[in-house]
């Protein structure tokens, strides 16, 4: 579908002004970041690097930096002995991480990676806000505000917000063609991390008045989004929600979709040119056949009254109960409930408790007792996936697994880790489809590591949690802040200078047990904090 003329003209204008902004004006001060206006492009990489260096050396940025956080980040004193890093390794990772967030800052939101992902991605942004929180509290709230600025009237927060024109990504707004003109978002969602991030920001806030003000505004928006998940993706009241596109899971190319993706590609699929392959080697990206399936879904959804959520659930040929979205939703519900109680919203807290109660039951459908792991379920055939992926361990992070289930998961995880140099691979290394380089079919993601490690800690598996944390530190110090990593060699893969990898380094190093949710993770609802 060709975009309307006025859309093209406005995008062109935007491109020209963006390019003008990119021309460096060396004397312009970079700080404060929080004052960067929406619509302005951040300065070039060099300037971001210089600014970071100057601020670190001289403390000139003191007003904006969270001095206590930075002090913690640059000192080892506050850490337990076994968590101490070599000082230079630690400060190198911290410096680079701050630099990457600043460099990918587009004024109010952070792109995942220059070129490869030039817009605001949903769960990336929520995770990234926890990274900003470590050194610029105001900017961290702004990240979440911008994410919700394009929330749909029905509550959905889309997987991508297209704030500014870019031609380095496919499929862009002209392909999605969502109802607003020009299209501002994609037409599907992504794992709902926002409430987890908001709680993290709120609990660790030094500017408490600001935090209170921000969370009050964000709370109803987050609640509306969670309601959307249940209304649009669980109209049958199973207690667990469906995803209707692999992109909704965030684990786009997972082998868990191999079976459910066996629907027929539409023969009238418009020809297209992929942009990802100009940034990243084809061996690390999904195949053409997989892309044809992605686009078949997209075009079918667009034809269905422009992504009408009430209809999509019934017409989508891809219909999966995904562990990543459901674990994150469950965990985010705990955090949203906690926020509701802070704000004195009892009724809303009870509504969320009902979701949690139903979720406890719903997760049972996803437990495969024979192999001792959770699995995604094809809702159309009713079968559990024939692949065990790293999402199998995320119910630990949700706190929905029983102690017995946790023990079985840990036995599996230990087996996986014995087969690779760096954990946690995204697929069971003994699965014949294991591919150490290809996107979600073998490589390690830091955000998944953080969630698994966090979950393990809460179930009392400290040693294993530390092994995963140490592997993550080794990977980033060896290969840099890459999108993902080869579990056999530790080499970096996919995009470079990746925002959520940077954010994870900051938040994880700063708050080793980040986002506390209490000790009683499973069990009756009164222990849900
Ligand atoms: C890839 C990932 C997805 C992520 C996006 C931006 O598409 O699979 O989870 O949100 O990149 O980083």
Automatic annotation (TrEMBL):
GO BP field: oligosaccharide metabolic process; protein N-linked glycosylation
Entries under Gene3D superfamilies matching the protein: 1.50.10.10
Domain Mannosylglycerate hydrolase MGH1-like glycoside hydrolase: 117-501
InterPro entries: 6-hairpin_glycosidase_sf, 6hp_glycosidase-like_sf, Glycoside_hydrolase_63, MGH1-like_GH
GO cellular component terms attached to this protein's record: endoplasmic reticulum membrane
SUPFAM superfamilies tied to this protein: Six-hairpin glycosidases
GO molecular function: Glc3Man9GlcNAc2 oligosaccharide glucosidase activity
Residue ranges of the region described as Disordered: 21-51
Designated name of the protein: Mannosylglycerate hydrolase MGH1-like glycoside hydrolase domain-containing protein
């Amino acid at each position: 579908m060709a975009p309307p003329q006025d859309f093209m003209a406005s995008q062109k204008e935007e491109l020209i002004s963006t390019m003008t902004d990119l021309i460096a004006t060396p004397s312009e001060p970079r700080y404060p970041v929080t004052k960067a206006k929406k619509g302005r492009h951040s300065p070039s990489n060099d300037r971001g690097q210089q600014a970071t260096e100057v601020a670190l050396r001289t403390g000139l940025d003191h007003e904006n930096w969270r001095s206590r956080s930075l002090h913690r980040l640059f000192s080892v004193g506050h850490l337990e002995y076994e968590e101490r890093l070599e000082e230079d390794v630690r400060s190198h990772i911290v410096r680079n991480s701050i630099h990457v967030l600043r460099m990918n800052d587009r004024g109010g939101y952070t792109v995942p990676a220059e070129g490869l992902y030039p817009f605001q991605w949903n769960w990336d942004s929520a995770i990234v806000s926890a990274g900003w929180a470590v050194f610029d509290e105001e900017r961290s709230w702004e990240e979440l505000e911008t994410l919700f600025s394009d929330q749909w009237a029905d509550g959905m927060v889309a997987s991508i917000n297209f704030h500014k024109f870019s031609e380095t990504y496919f499929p862009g707004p002209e392909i999605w063609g969502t109802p607003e003109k020009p299209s501002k978002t994609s037409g599907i969602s992504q794992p709902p991390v926002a409430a987890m991030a908001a709680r993290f920001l709120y609990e660790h806030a030094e500017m408490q008045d600001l935090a209170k003000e921000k969370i009050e505004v964000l709370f109803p928006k987050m609640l509306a989004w969670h309601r959307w998940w249940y209304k649009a993706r669980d109209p049958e009241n199973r207690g667990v929600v469906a995803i209707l596109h692999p992109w909704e899971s965030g684990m786009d190319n997972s082998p868990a979709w191999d079976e459910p993706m066996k629907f027929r590609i539409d023969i009238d699929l418009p020809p297209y040119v992929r942009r990802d392959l100009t940034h990243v080697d084809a061996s690390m990206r999904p195949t053409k056949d997989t892309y044809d399936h992605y686009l078949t879904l997209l075009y079918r959804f667009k034809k269905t009254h422009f992504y009408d959520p009430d209809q999509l659930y019934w017409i989508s040929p891809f219909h999966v109960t995904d562990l990543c979205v459901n674990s994150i939703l469950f965990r985010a519900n705990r955090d949203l409930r906690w926020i509701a109680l802070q704000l004195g919203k009892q009724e809303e807290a009870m509504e969320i408790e009902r979701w949690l109660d139903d979720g406890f039951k719903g997760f049972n459908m996803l437990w495969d007792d024979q192999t001792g792991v959770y699995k995604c379920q094809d809702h159309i055939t009713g079968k559990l996936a024939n692949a065990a992926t790293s999402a199998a361990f995320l119910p630990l992070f949700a706190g929905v697994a029983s102690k017995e289930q946790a023990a079985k998961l840990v036995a599996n995880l230990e087996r996986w880790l014995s087969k690779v140099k760096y954990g946690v691979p995204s697929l069971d290394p003994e699965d014949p489809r294991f591919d150490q380089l290809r996107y979600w079919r073998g490589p390690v993601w830091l955000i998944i590591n953080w969630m698994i490690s966090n979950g393990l800690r809460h179930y009392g598996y400290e040693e294993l949690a530390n092994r995963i944390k140490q592997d993550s530190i080794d990977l980033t110090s060896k290969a840099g802040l890459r999108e993902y990593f080869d579990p056999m060699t530790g080499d970096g893969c996919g995009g470079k200078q990746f925002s959520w990898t940077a954010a994870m380094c900051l938040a994880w190093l700063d708050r080793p047990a980040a986002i506390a949710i209490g000790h009683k993770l499973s069990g009756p609802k009164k222990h849900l904090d």
